[in-house]
Amino acid sequence: MNQRSATAEHRKAVPFWRDERVLKVLVQIVFVMLVIAVGLWALSNYRERGLTFTFSFLDEEASFDLAEGIEFAPTDTYARAFLVGVLNTLRVAGIGIIMASVVGLFAGIARLSNNWLVSKIAGVYIEIIRNTPLLVQLFFLYFAVILNLPSIKEVIVLPGPVYLSNRGIVFPWARLTASFGGWWWFVVAALIGAVVLLIIRKRGLKRTGHPSFSLLYVCVPLIAIPVLGWMLISGSPLLLDLPEMVVKSGGVLKVEGGAGFSSEFMALLLGLVVYTGAYIAEVLRAGIMSVPRGQTEAARAQGFTRGQILRLIVLPQALRVIIPPLISQYLNLTKNSSLAIAIGFLDIYAVSQTMLNQSGRVVEVFFMIMASYLTMSLTISLIMNIVNRRIQIVER
Amino acid sequence: MAVQPELKPPPTEVGLLGWLKKNLFSTWYNVPLTIFSIAFIYFVLRVIIIWAVHDARWEVVTTNLKVFMIGRYPAKEAWRVLAALGIVVILAALTWVLWRRKDSKIKRWLVIGWLLSFPLIGILLRGFSRESPFLPLVSADIWSGILLTLVLAIVGIGASFPLGVLLALGRRSKLPAIKVICTVYIETIRGIPLISVLFMSQLLLPLFLPPELRLGTVMRALTGMTLFSAAYTAENVRGGLAAVPIGQYDAASALGLNKVLMMVLIVLPQALRAVIPTIVGQFISLFKDTTLVVIVGLLDLLGIAKAVTGQRAFIGLHQEVYCFVAVLFFICCYTMSYASRRLEKKLGVGER
User: Fold this and answer.
1) Which of A12, A61, A265, B294 is the most exposed place for a label (fewest CB within 10 A)?
2) Contact criterion met (CB below 8 Å) for B289 and A134
């Protein structure tokens, strides 16, 4: 019996509904049809209510006020209102990510400390924060702590001066002056110079193998050029703007000048930083613990100093483990910033809520919320993935 | 040669002194660090204890204890909640005692008991109809307090599990259409905050369902929780599936099992066992996340707490109330994470 007839017979024996190649296509078609059918069914229910899908309302007048973020008047459009929300979310997420990293770094180091007490204090902090809901922490911070601060009449003045009251915090901040534009070019030049020097030093390290102290060298142009610019340009480009207490007409007290956070922003930021910081600390600890003890011992046997062991042996290996969960912590922080609505901070979600109450455009607003959070998530993971890939390649 | 008498180790190396030297004063910078830590602990504890013993008005918690537990559930029907709790406690105790035996028949009965307990408790809590003399209707919309928190968390994780397994299998599928749809679903849900999913389920779901099919607010929140949790379960299960060696698939095909049987009998049992600790972790975070239903207006434990702080007699007692809620959550979550760590050790998942 030859091969061909056997195959033919085989084909005959397998009816098409049991032929795997046919089945594969069939299953997919059925599945897609099912998804489309559910979608169409949902859409028809939506249509039956006489609802449409249009974003034209975005150009209409919003006619509500927003107290937080960039300038906004009730006569502005819905689109601008949404922009206010997006910028507020970005602000709290951006500052939050930086501060949470710092808190997490300190807590992580403390947790790994060989000092028993320090390690235990960090452990208690991490466990308490990780085992209670963020929203409870936010409520506690906002209602029980920040709103319980003294009113503006008995404002707490910390050295600086920093004004702290139940309306928020105001602190000194640098104000740009007219000559800032000229000085800015010196800063750019400093950055370029630093990068060029870094590349040269790194190449030198590769060629000769001698320690390059590249970071030390980089600091030179980074500091020298802006200072030079400061002296060359007439007038200081930055001025320290100190806040001060003023009495408005009718005896209304107000803190003017400086920069500040509203009490809602402060509560949200503090809550997010403390919460994410605890998680980041755990990520760091797990990363450092993942480096086998033998690596440290081998390095010590070869005469590396403690600093060198950490910098050259432990951290490069730990970072590989640390970066992926760190990305997801940053993403979580960004997503958790949507809890702002519970304490009245005007982020994307809170502004959207007002928008849809005013306009009734539920589906459209939901699409906008989803699109903006997905964009942020994808951007953060893209950036961190690039960082991650660099670390992996450099190491191998 | 005379044998040297065995010398005792110096007193600074063993015992309490040794411990102190090793753990608190090992290097020069650890000395100020330790002193600073002791001062820190002293001040923090002093503030907390003085507040808790002296200043705090705990009567806000003690008088409202029942409200925290069952919220707006009718007081006359409160025994039903206790009965439901009793069923769970008895089942848990039976499981605790009997599970270690190698008898698979008992295990099967236990599993059946657990599966039956869910509809039973559901009927017990919800009741039949408004006029029914026995178990009158208590609409899910007025479930509140810890009861609602538990219902949301347990139903959320339970209902999301099958969906999550299917999504995980779909994402690992070799058929591109299924893979793409499942991946898009998982990544979209994971990319947006839970609160926007809850918002969707509260406001959008009714718009896309036929008018006859009306879900209460609690049911809608549960739908949202389930849809959200399923995406995370899917990712966890996918991790477990990846851990099953390829040889298991080959062996199953060699035995002549078809794709479905291969998954159900060979792959999934191994994959699911590997992800038990992760699922416990996910349950803990879902348990914490149930508090978000406050934002869409439900009265779970936190919602009740917020309402209690508005009571005329106790207005503004935020510290006491939120501390109480936080402590409750801490006890539950810490116990669960401790148990899951032990489970992990027992299953040896961490060792691989």
Assistant:
1) A12
2) no
| Interface pTM, i.e. ipTM | 0.86
Look at residue B28 and tell me if it is in a domain. no
| pLDDT for B351 | 42
Residues A156 and A212 in one domain: no
Contact B181 A32 (CB under 8 A): yes
The one-letter code for the residue type at B272 is L
**Domain harbouring B67, CATH code:** 1.10.3720.10
Residues A344 and A270 in one domain: yes
For residue B330, what are the domain limits?
A: 59-73+138-347
Same domain, A222 and A261: no
Q: Which of the pair, A198 or A278, is modelled with greater confidence? A: A278
Q: A207 and A128, same structural domain?
A: no
Q: Which residue in B37, B175, B188 is closest to A118 by CB distance?
A: B37
- Residue B178 with chain A: CB contacts under 8 Å: 27-28, 31
Cα–Cα distance, B235 to B189 (Å, whole number): 11
Confidence of residue A184 (pLDDT cuts 50, 70, 90): confident
Q: Which amino acid is at B156?
A: G
| Predicted pLDDT of residue B73 | 80
The residues, ordered by sequence, that sit 6+ positions from B188 with a Cβ below 8 Å of its Cβ are A370, A374
pLDDT at A98 over 70: yes
Top pLDDT among B271 and A3 is at B271
Number of domains in chain B: 1
- What mean pLDDT value characterizes chain B? 85
Assign A246 to helix, strand or coil.
strand
Q: Which of A217, A241, A265 is the last residue of a domain?
A: A241
CB of A377 within 8 Å of a chain B CB? The answer is yes
Is residue A133 a contact partner of residue B284, using CB atoms and an 8 Å limit?
A: no
In a shared domain, residues A128 and A179: no
B244 within a domain of the structure (yes/no): yes
Confidence class for position A395, pLDDT limits 50, 70, 90: very low
A72 touches chain B (CB under 8 A): no
Query: Considering CB atoms only, which of B203, B208, B291 is closest to A42?
Result: B208
| Residue B34 in contact with partner chain A when CB distance is under 8 A | yes
CB atoms near residue B32 (< 10 Å): 9
Q: Mutate which of A128, A131, A327, A359 to test chain B, going by most B C-beta atoms within 10 A?
A: A131
Q: Are A223 and A348 within one domain?
A: no
Chain A nearest CA to B219, separation (Å):
18
The answer on A12 and A138 residing in a single domain is: no
Tens digits of per-residue pLDDT, A123-137? 999 999 999 999 999
Comparing A52-66, A164-178, A331-345, B215-229, the range with the smallest average pLDDT is A52-66
Contact between chains at B177 and A49 (C-beta distance less than 8 A): no
User: Cα separation of A222 and A241, whole Å?
Assistant: 24
- pLDDT band at residue B211 under the 50/70/90 scheme: confident
Structurally, chain A folds into a number of domains equal to 3
A382 and A339 part of one domain:
yes
Residue of A nearest to B286 (CA): A133
What is the pLDDT averaged over residues B89-112? Answer: 80
Q: Give the integer Cα–Cα distance in Å for A261 and A267.
A: 9
How many Å apart are CA B178 and CA A35, to the nearest integer? 10
Contact indicator for A330, A384 with CB cutoff of 8 Å: yes
Residue A270 is predicted with a pLDDT of 93
Query: Domain limits at A14?
Result: 3-48
Residue A62: inside a domain = no
Taking alpha carbons only, the member of B349, B190, B351 closest to residue B277 is B349
Q: Per residue in B3-26, pLDDT tens?
A: 777 888 777 777 788 888 877 787
- For chain B, count helices (H), then strands (E): 16, 0
Q: Do A132 and B200 touch (CB under 8 A)?
A: no
Judge whether B20 lies within some domain.
Answer: no
